[in-house]
Amino acid sequence: MRSTLSTAIPPATKPDTMTASHQDATAARDHYLQLTSNGQGGPQAWFGLAQAQHALGEIKAALAALEQAVSAAPDNLQLLLYKGDLLAADGNAPAAAAFYRTALDAAPPDQELPAQLRAHVQKARHACAEYMEKFEQKLQNNLAQAGYTHGREHARFRQSLDLLLGRKQLYLQQPRLYYFPGLPQIQYFEREAFPWLDQVEAATPAIRAELEQILKDQDAFEPYLKPDPTLPARERGGLHNNRDWSAFYLYRNGEIVAENAARCPATMAAMAHVPMPQIAGRAPTVLFSLMRPGAHITPHTGILNTRLICHLPLIVPQGCSLRVGNETRHWEEGKAWVFDDSIEHEAWNRSNETRVILLFETWRPELSESERTLVSTMLGSIEDGNDWET
Fold first, then answer.
1. Residue 124: partners with Cβ closer than 8 Å, 6 or more residues away
2. What integer pLDDT is reported at residue 116 of this predicted model?
3. Residue 338's beta-bridge partner residues?
């Protein structure tokens, strides 16, 4: 949310000192010095004094005067912008950029600004971009000398750099029910932690063949979001009871859906390789997840951070993607991935065809066997009444 800043331009009681002659600037300075020394004129007088001193090249004095104006009117947008101007004139580009960014973050849209102030905002925006470009270049040069590359060995550092430079937003685990502390904040996991993925991917042709038989009966799929009428329903972009996002369950709430599983022996055999959570009445969950053209699963988080979600893409037209935190990936048929659904995520199908993946759960690899047992026991002991969607 933006802060409320005054966009009123402090009135001038003398000609514009930034374009006046040296004599006029001197007269303006003396005038405003007289006013401020007598405690008159308020922030407008201090602002006028700063402008006059700036025109005379008295940058340090101008900064001191402007500080008085900012102290008296801390929410005035033009004063913040002008503080950036003076700091830039004083050779302090980092501080200037900091003031510019503060002003830009809180400023209203350009079309709501007076013309003169709009030009000042645009100038500040350009100055920030120029400073950041120079800063990034210096940083990259220093890092290159320290051995930094864009290889996988520096993937975590590269993510930290993107966050530092504002290229990406920080997203953290926010499970809706249960949070297990101390687990790494990872959006998409490297597949080396899940060697069994190779066996699952190898079964892709057989799994897809079973899926294609099921798709001949569209009624086999049911809406993924079917709210329990005894519980409050969260808004999910109109997807409640909507077949645009549908499911064909093989496991549901920890139980095999026998009729469906019987139709998918190859898929069930592939799932035998997966260390899935075993939680009474709750997990595992395995399903074919179908998104029709134009469907959008709006941003949300899962219910706990002790399990991860796996996707095996089976039918994926162009225009289908998943965003987890600040990283968006495009599904590729037969190439599985694993992600933490306790981090905000969303998905969409912007194609004219149906997208289907196999969705299933696995334990977080960092949990010990004893921790898994305790988590399963605890979650299995929670009475029904909690939304358990994945």
1. 81, 84, 100, 103, 104
2. 84
3. 310
- Identify the three-state secondary structure at position 209: helix
Q: Is 62 exposed, middle or buried (0-12, 13-18, 19+ CB in 10 A)?
A: buried
Instruction: Kindly give, in sequence order, each residue whose CB lies less than 8 Å from that of residue 95, ignoring residues fewer than 6 positions away.
Output: 87
What is the rounded distance in angstroms from the CA atom of residue 16 to the CA atom of residue 27?
12
Structural contact between residues 338 and 143, judged by C-beta atoms closer than 8 angstroms: no
Helix (H, G, I), strand (E, B) or coil at 386: coil
- CA of 336: how far to CAs of 278, 309, 313, in Å? 22, 11, 7
Neighbouring C-beta atoms of residue 242, cutoff 10 Å = 16
Task: Give domain 1-168's CATH number out of 3.30.565.10, 1.20.120.10, 3.90.190.20, 1.25.40.10.
Answer: 1.25.40.10
Q: Do domains 1-168 and 191-381 have the same CATH topology?
A: no
Topology of domain 191-381 in CATH is Jelly Rolls (2.60.120)
Q: Which one-letter amino acid corresponds to residue 81? A: L
Helix (H, G, I), strand (E, B) or coil at 133: helix
Q: How many CB atoms lie within 10 A of CB 357?
A: 24
Please classify residue 57 by burial: count the beta carbons closer than 10 Å to its beta carbon, then call 0-12 exposed, 13-18 middle and 19+ buried. exposed
Please compute Rg for the chain using Cα positions.
30
Residue 250: φ, ψ to 5°? -105, -40
* pLDDT tens digits for range 146-197: 998 888 788 889 999 999 888 899 999 999 999 999 999 999 999 999 999 9
Q: In angstroms, rounded to a whole number, what is the distance separating the alpha carbons of residues 91 and 143?
A: 25
> Strand, helix or coil at 299?
strand
Kindly list the domain boundaries of the chain, sorted by start residue.
1-168, 191-381
pLDDT digits (tens, 9 = 90+) for 309-356: 999 999 999 999 999 999 999 999 999 999 999 999 999 999 999 999
DSSP assignment of 71-96 equals HH-TTBHHHHHHHHHHHHHTT-HHHH
Inter-residue contact 50 to 82 (CB < 8 Å):
yes
The rounded distance, in Å, linking the Cα atoms of 330 and 334 is 12
Provide the 10 A C-beta neighbour count for residue 29: 25
